[in-house]
Design a protein that fits this description.
heterodimer, A: mainly alpha, three-stranded antiparallel β-sheet, B: alpha/beta, Beta Polymerase, domain 2, five-stranded mixed β-sheet, 4 helices, 7 strands
Chain lengths: 398, 179
């Protein structure tokens, strides 16, 4: 890792260590800043403080066991991580998921997107001095977490999306809290906008700060709201639809200014689009129907069947002791996480354990552009720029 | 269970990519693989950077986004390392995977940083966890693990539970367990 000693400044400049415990680095990011007065000359991010070797651990797990690890990467988007992994395994197996499960997946990941954007908005605003937005955002996020708890039994590490479908049927009476949320949320988004969009301090801190051109953003492999704020309408839900997103009617908000303010506007607009998607999914989810694919040997049988059918008992035993073995080959699946393109690469060698699981974390790759955003800017803008990329260190370091 | 091995659009894309690259340089395409609707073009190691550049610049291909790069260790088979580069063409809405094979004794490949600056951290991660060297990389250092870490954990001959007897994983354990 980079040490302060190796990064000495010149006679004119000094080196300042920021992090890894700095609150506005959103986790354990460390940045070495070379400063000339208040101007950043050079920035060197230093990562790895949260490296847990998730990709290595996957080598020793069966395909179903990996799901719980995926939750723990991007901990603001556990359902999205579950989804991308399950989509990859399903592609590897050639498994078709029932429509009802697909719609529930869509609804859940869109709720997750809103909750993730709320955390982003709240923390970004608090970094720049707007305390009350944080409290409002977390108030609404709480409602989403309650819905997750109702559906999955967990508020954060849900492991709800499973290979071939979902872990559980939606609970009785699930429509009421979702409906209440859908009714409440649009006016709450307006509330945040009242606090920030026309706020002179907010505009002063974000407008024209952290500019990156669309060409540079693509060259640096940036995706998600940061790329869309540069005017490139690249959204995996539209470009490479998965989980029946092609049946949903929504827009991809873009801006062209490509500064922190534009990214703020894009994310707020995305929350409204997500509400549109949730409303449509809400209508599409039927009250009855399967939530798991028909695939004995891959999907655990129902408990009742195990008590009456010999095959079901055998399959259950085999799935939980040996696992299942997909055909040898490689797949790469991408979904749109709140932060950008989240990808999962799986290489199978035909054994019950994956040969290699790799996650393309959008936080990791977007963070690479941080020096580009802040070099030549003022030190106060560093915090705005870290916030605007919306990183989750759990995903950066994996 | 609906198994669809090759979808129509993807095999069309595979033909476009293969033809385009073959007409540019017949040696650039070793093999074209199709699996689950995904196209993989196996490229000789010497031609990787030139092929990547061609993929980005060719008006018919326009693969402008390097979305991911990763490695698979096929130990004990040789050549053991399989480098996979995932490219996306935003205007054409297509994906392709470029693949290069590297032997265990000679795990060196050209860096793609001159083509896509975004390859920088992707290659540093692979260097860190697999020990593959990228010639022409501007800043090839470990990124996730400490600088003094020994070995490359994502190699298949590195045990999942780590080594207990080497420094920096086992030192503390050994000291505390000996009387």
């Amino acid at each position: 890792m980079t040490t302060v000693e190796t990064a000495v400044g010149t006679a004119k400049t000094m080196v300042l260590n920021m992090g890894p415990q700095h609150p506005s680095t959103h986790g354990v990011l460390r940045i070495l800043l070379e400063l000339d007065g208040e101007t950043v000359v050079k920035a060197v991010p230093d990562l790895g403080y949260l490296h847990t070797g998730i990709e290595k651990s996957c080598e020793d797990k069966t395909y179903s066991q990996v799901i719980t690890l995926t939750d723990r990467m991007d901990y603001l988007n556990p359902l999205g991580n579950n989804l991308v992994y399950c989509l990859a395994v399903e592609k590897l197996l050639g498994l078709e998921v029932p429509k009802r499960a697909q719609y529930i997946r869509v609804m859940m990941v869109e709720l997750q997107r809103i909750s993730s954007h709320l955390v982003w908005l709240g923390t970004h605003a608090i970094d720049l001095g707007a305390m009350s937005v944080f409290l409002y955002c977390f108030r609404e996020r709480e409602e989403i977490l309650k819905i997750f708890e109702l559906f999955t039994g967990q508020r954060m590490m849900t492991s709800y999306i499973r290979i071939g479908g979902l872990a559980l049927d939606p609970p009785a009476g699930w429509r009421q809290p979702v409906e209440r949320f859908l009714k409440m949320m649009p006016s709450r988004v307006d509330e945040y906008e009242t606090l920030l969009t026309e706020n002179r301090i907010w505009i002063g801190r974000t407008k024209g700060v952290g500019y990156i051109s669309a060409e540079d953003a693509i060259a640096l492999s940036m995706t998600g709201p940061t790329l869309r704020a540069a005017g490139v309408a690249y959204d995996n839900r539209k470009v490479f639809p998965y989980s029946s997103y092609e049946e949903f009617n929504f827009d991809v908000p873009t801006r062209t200014e490509s500064d922190c303010y534009a990214r703020y506007l894009v994310r707020v607009a995305e929350m409204r689009e997500s509400l549109k998607i949730i409303r449509q999914a809400f209508g599409k989810i039927s009250n009855e129907g399967p939530i798991k694919a028909e695939a004995p040997g891959i999907i655990p049988p129902q408990r009742e069947k195990m008590k009456t059918e010999m095959e079901a008992l055998i399959y259950h035993f085999k799935i939980f002791t040996e696992g299942f073995s997909p055909a040898p080959g490689e797949v790469f699946v991408t979904v749109e996480s709140p932060r950008g393109e989240l990808g999962c690469f799986i290489a199978s060698d035909g054994s019950p354990k994956p040969l290699r699981v790799h996650f393309r974390g959008p936080s990791y790759i977007n963070l690479q552009a941080l020096p580009k955003l802040i070099e030549g800017q003022l030190i106060a803008d560093v915090i705005a720029c870290i916030g605007t990329i919306d990183i989750v260190l759990g995903e950066v370091d994996r | 269970m609906g198994l669809e091995i090759v979808t129509e659009s993807s095999s069309k894309n595979a033909n476009v990519v293969a033809e385009c690259l073959r007409s540019w340089n017949p040696k650039a395409v070793v093999e074209v693989l199709e699996f689950r609707g995904e196209t993989t073009v196996v490229v000789p190691r010497e031609l990787l950077r030139a092929t990547a550049e061609r993929c980005r610049e060719d008006a018919q291909l326009q693969y402008n986004l390097l979305t991911d790069a990763t490695c698979v260790d096929r130990y004990p088979n040789e050549p053991r390392f399989e480098m996979n580069y995932h490219l996306v063409s935003i205007p054409r809405r297509e994906k392709v995977r470029l693949r290069v094979w590297l032997g265990g004794n000679d795990a060196v490949v050209d860096s793609l940083v001159p083509v896509w600056p975004g390859a920088n951290w992707l290659e540093r991660e692979i260097f860190d966890l697999f020990g593959i060297r990228f010639s022409g990389h501007p800043d090839l250092r470990r990124i996730l693990l400490p600088d003094d870490w020994e070995g490359h954990p994502l190699r298949r001959d590195y045990p999942v539970e780590g080594y207990r007897d080497v420094p920096n994983t086992g030192e503390l354990f050994r000291k505390s367990s000996t009387p």
